[in-house]
Amino acid sequence: MKRAAMYMRVSSLDQHPETQLYDLRQMASQRGYEIVQEYTDRISGAKARRPGLDDLMRDARRGRFDVILVWASDRIARSVKHFLEILDELNRLNIEFVSFREQIDTGGPLGRAIVVIIGAIAELERNLIIERVRAGMRRARLEGRHIGRRPLELDRAAILRDRQHGQSLGQIAKAHNISRATVHRVIHEPASTPSENVA
pTM above the 0.85 mark? Predict the structure, then answer.
């Protein structure tokens, strides 16, 4: 008999996990699982810290169960990336993941295939985002628009003059609204034009 852990999350204090609990207990009974632990979080899905999920993953690493039951995949993860990270770790721990709503079961070949498909879609989406960003940057360059941080306008002659008058690096930096490192660089770089742009 496989040892099962159940994880439930409700997104506000006004909701109750009883509906999820009933469905998961019924599924465990139908599959012949022995429920050894139940974990519950009453917290928004977007929150990074979840005590119940933290306890679940800690006990998973200790080998305290063989399968995790959830009512829906969005109950356990705050994003697709987070979901895939959890599935990846459970796979390494040889722990099956079963979702009641989506009927995902990584213990079977179809469930494992679904996980691979989800991973491929997530990777495709990441690549599409990267390509959209790059396309936007290319378009901006073609249109002559500046990309990134504006170069710092420095009056090198004034900085050198202030230094010759005995001002400290900190005083000069404060007067010109720049860092001490920039002042140091300007003072020690070879002579150039009276004013220049320094990135």
Answer: no
